Amino acid sequence: MKPRDPRRILHSNSTQKGGNAGSDQSKLNASLNSAMQGNLGALRQEDQLEKKLVPSSTIKPPDITRQFTSSLRNIADILSASQASTSSPVPSQIPSSQPVQSHQGVMETKDVLSESGNLRNRTGLASEEANAGPPRPMNANAWSDVEHLFEGFDDKQKAAIQRERARRLEEQKKMFAVRKLCLVLDLDHTLLNSAKASEYFTSFVEVDPVHDEMLSKKEEQDREKPYRHLFRFPHMAMWTKLRPGIWNFLEKASKLFELHLYTMGNKYYATEMAKLLDPKGDLFSGRVISRGDDGEPDDGNERVPKSKDLEGVLGMESAVVIMDDSIRVWPHNKLNLIVVERYIYFPCSRRQFGLPGPSLLEIDHDERPEDGTLASSLGVIERIHQNFFAHESLEEADVRNILASEQKKILAGCRIVFSRVFPVGEAKPHMHPLWQTAEQFGAVCTNQIDEQVTHVVANSLGTDKVNWALSVGKFVVYPGWVEASALLYRRANEQDFAIKQQ
Q1: What is the DSSP string of 141-169?
Q2: Whose CA is closest to 278, among 302, 256, 236, 249?
Q3: Does a structural domain hold residue 381?
Q4: In this structure, is residue 437 part of a structural domain?
Q5: C-alpha distance from residue 263 to each of 186, 305, 329, 342, 367 (Å)
Q6: 386-415: per-residue pLDDT in tens?
Q7: Are the C-beta atoms of residues 139 and 10 closer than 8 Å to each other?
Q8: DSSP H/E element including 457
Q9: 64, 65, 57, 63: which is closest to 26 by C-alpha?
Q10: Confidence band of 86 (pLDDT split at 50, 70, 90)
Q11: In the sheet where 455-458 sits, what is the strand order?
């Protein structure tokens, strides 16, 4: 396995000199293992594909990026009907949350880490303990009291790691001088969706003739607009559909962040997409990471998921925000991650993830740019940037703490009881992904019904808890309500996910 980012050994002051560094860091990492969870079964096929990515454990790796309903519309569309309104009041009177507003790693350091073994085992950061406590405050730039982490490294290796840290701190200082942080953007299913043919065919084999004709007409109309969203690449036998709101997102995000593109696609694909999104070269300025850039061989197998890291990204992890549709490809940087709903426009992408029902193309419907995923994410990163630079000491500020704080606001004030959402006889319901997602985003979850309960989350009517909630005027919602709130960083309107009596 490729050694982890050398910055990780330098980042935490949560371990005290002479203490158990592995244990404390394990708890920190494990607390995030509870983050962004909520896969309720719609991505079982993807689960099987991704099993190789993270070592198996008693806790299922988190992923709240499943498609929310079997209906024709995606989550942003489901919620938009009552976007500006607050949830219908009940006796508890809980207000709905509003939207929250050449850089490759040093080769010498990589060689040092390869020789010295896997840092995951040295620091214990890969451990995913089930009983982890809440994340501890972090200071990514702390250097004192970490000498014990260097046990086993010789002087040359230590010096190489220290030089890498110094280089990154200097990069970060330059960013801070212009009030910028780093934003790493996943490409496929986050910013856009592409449908391509096999390299052995010249036709668009992933798009049938009927939809190909639809796309051709749309592409012709789209050419007349100042900002295009649909592109055909004959030389790559590919259609690419940009996510609605992308141009506004990139323009505003680039003023606050140094933007990086990160794709599991090959270098050629990454280059073409970068030119599409940034024709003048001003937004990314060559900061594009693709498959093979991490030093792992490109085996041509795009179906096998691989992990991502921040090795080729500017600065320290305390100043890096990541946007991706999957948490599993970032096993070492979950605290930096904003998970977004997968953008699935083409039918072949729905099949890829094992999702039933038609795609956005098939129903001729798309996200709305003004209140869709990218608009919500823009509000989150703007809030992170604002809070970061409002900190008294930028050296002590950390985007991970800010992001965790923002998440806690989403479902604050909600007290949730689950009814037949978990398997019958579940001994540890608090370890279920949905329970953990709700708590990460500020809710209090309990097994007991009482007057303080505000929501009963269920899959159907008829249970005692559901009947009680209906009789006393509490919210009764599908599990998608929790996940929708987590993905869009605002409390979803309960009426959009209400389980209604016939």
Answers
A1: T--TT-GGGGTT--HHHHHHHHHHHHHHH
A2: 249
A3: no
A4: yes
A5: 6, 11, 11, 14, 22
A6: 999 999 999 899 999 999 999 999 999 999
A7: no
A8: strand 455-458
A9: 57
A10: very low
A11: 444-446, 415-419, 455-458, 475-477
Look at residue 379 and tell me whether its pLDDT is greater than 60: yes
Asked whether residue 121 falls in the same domain as residue 236, the answer is: no
Parallel, antiparallel, or unpaired: how do β-strands 257-262 and 288-289 relate? Answer: parallel
C-alpha R_g of the chain = 23
pTM: 0.74
Which tokens sit at 146? 């970490």
CB 465 within 8 A of CB 452: no
Is the predicted pLDDT of residue 189 greater than 50, yes or no? yes
Which of 242, 267, 298 marks a domain boundary?
242
Give 120's contacts (C-beta < 8 A, 6+ positions apart): 1, 4, 126, 332
In a domain, 129, yes or no: yes
Residue 100 lies in a domain: no
User: Which tens digits make up the pLDDT trace of 261-289?
Assistant: 999 888 999 999 999 999 999 999 999 99
Contact 234, 202 (CB under 8 A): no
The CA distance from 421 to 433, in Å, is 11
**Which pLDDT band holds residue 80 (cuts at 50, 70, 90)?**
low
> What does DSSP assign to residue 84?
T
The rounded distance, in Å, linking the Cα atoms of 207 and 213 is 10
Interacting residues of 378 by C-beta distance below 8 A, sequence separation 6+: 245, 248, 249, 252, 253
Q: Provide the pLDDT for residue 162.
A: 82
- Residue 228 and residue 116 in one domain: no
254, exposed or middle or buried, with CB in 10 Å at 0-12, 13-18, 19+?
Answer: middle
pLDDT tens-place string over residues 471-491: 999 999 999 999 999 999 999
pLDDT in tens, 301-347: 444 447 898 888 888 899 999 999 999 999 999 999 999 999 999 99
Do 22 and 162 belong to one domain? Answer: yes
CA distance 13 to 102: 29
Q: At what angle do helices 433-440 and 480-488 cross, to 10 degrees?
A: 40
Does residue 93 carry a pLDDT above 90? no
159 falls in which pLDDT band (50, 70, 90)?
Answer: confident
* Token pair 């703007």: residue: 382
Angle of helix 480-488 versus helix 399-410 axis, rounded to 10? 140
